[in-house]
Amino acid sequence: MAFDILIGILSTLGAGIAAQWVAWRFRLPAIVLLFALGLILGPGLNILHPSASLGWLFRPVVSLVVAIVVFEGGLLLDFRQLREAGEGVVRLTLLALPINWALGTLAAHYVAHLEWGVAALFGAIITVTGPTVVLPLLRHNKLKPRVAAFLRWEAIINDPIGAILAAVVLQFVTVRAAEGPGTLVTEILPDMVSSTVVSVAAGILPAYCVNQLFRRDLMPESLKTPLLLTLALVIFSLCNLTMEGAGLVGATVFGMALTNLHVPGLSELRRMKESLVVLFVSVLFILLTADLHRGVLARLSFPILGLTVLVLCVVRPLAIFFSTLGTKLTWQERVFVGWIAPRGIVAAAVAGAAGLRLADAGFASSDLIMPAVFCVIAVTMIVHGFSLRPLARRLGLTLSNEPALAIIGANPWSVELAACLHREGVPVLLVDNRSSALMAAARRGLPLLRAELLSQYGEEALEERPVDYLIAATPDGIYNGLVCAHMAPHFGRERVFQISPGVARLDLYHGVSRDARGKVMGEPSWNYGLLDSLVEKGWRCVARPATESDGADFGKIANRLDLLSIRRGVAIFIRSAEDETSVTPQPGDLLVSMVAPEAAVAAA
Fold first, then answer.
1. Which of 98, 243, 249, 438 is the most buried (most CB within 10 A)?
2. pLDDT tens across 128-155, in order?
3. Which CATH number fits domain 1-395: 2.30.42.10, 3.30.300.30, 1.10.10.10, 1.20.1530.20?
4. Taking the model in full, what pTM does it have?
């Protein structure tokens, strides 16, 4: 038994991380691969049997992991970003959610022939999109800020609301079967209101206490992250004692309160939690899918498939259409949001627990609730996962898919490089906090961002731009290293570069630590003074398509500083003496070099 559990844990972890890497490498929706792995390891090959192996521990473990996921989602909800999608989010909660519920209930009853009580529960469950599926899709696709904020807020806010709605409906239909409908007014609604108020308070008050502890330096750094994770789990568990689903409200509000109180030290937590959530989501999707019995799959029928199609093509689009009438949303945004609504872990967890209670209450169609919800989850994850990117491109809701470069520090050399890239249609952004330094770049029509990149505003402003690589090029080598170290978790450590701080400072033992700076662009001798003096002497940046001979000659020609090799739609390769393998351009790549005045004239 213990050996089976060990094998299950190892296979789940290994398969989950492998699926995430394959999704990243080949730009595929990770949730689809995880879902497929769960089906293969569970109902397919019978390797994983999570609920049988873990017994009564399975559901509590799943619930606690979901608590961490929704807490991480709450940390992303800064009210300043609500301005991007505020009107739409309010309508999605107050209007679209009940319309979804009503239409979903009607569809389940008349198409899949579910009893009214079971149909009402199905309609409540499908109102939940959920951050566990939406956030990974947003991370892998560059959507415009407003539509991305719209989907993010909807998923995170409607997740606990939809779960509570499902719990209320379940309690109502099961109690009504035994005691009558009068209990809705006398018991269920008062319990729901009081539980929600308690959950909101349970999320806000601990966040306020944490803020005071952290600001007064009453908590050591080593305990901050463990404290916050523990509080999130405790709040979730205690709120669930008042009502099923209330824990999701408490954990989400706790995360939102921490972010909007601007509690110091949250950046470390966010980075660690993002890694944890990737691991947890991978494990959860595989385990919940693997736990499906073949009998559930066998009960899939044409009426259930018809119900799924109706949910995707009629219920959700109509709910979005009616709820967004009169808003500032464009028709493209309304079409996109009306289509993209993948369901995930919360829907699966609620459906699994609800089926048993419906059966105990005597509903004949209770055994169809899990197949119906599973079918919606499966189809939405696959169809929406693969259609999100092409649909967003077709509707013009994506940022540029070309790899983009941010250059920090406006000076003659960086402006020259940015202008060369801009002429060739390569997305580039010049960042500086001095308006006087940006004037020369503004006269040349270059994309600019006036901000201190180490500020919260600067970091948020950069996140809204389609930037994939960074070069820190200010005269201050220490500042360049600080920027690179700060942005490395966002871009990836191999994508942040800086101009050389000097040969002596690059010593691996006595020099500046590699973790405290970026990779050196070009050679160690290419410091700020050298590049600045070359521009003064008339050296210029030129771009040209690579030929067959450039594969061997790149970086080896005298009197030419080869800087970048750009593969359109794929990557930007920035030369660095610290690379273990040198950049090898392929024919057709765009090569960017700095050349002497006479060569620059010839190239022009």
1. 249
2. 776 667 777 776 777 877 788 778 777 7
3. 1.20.1530.20
4. 0.69
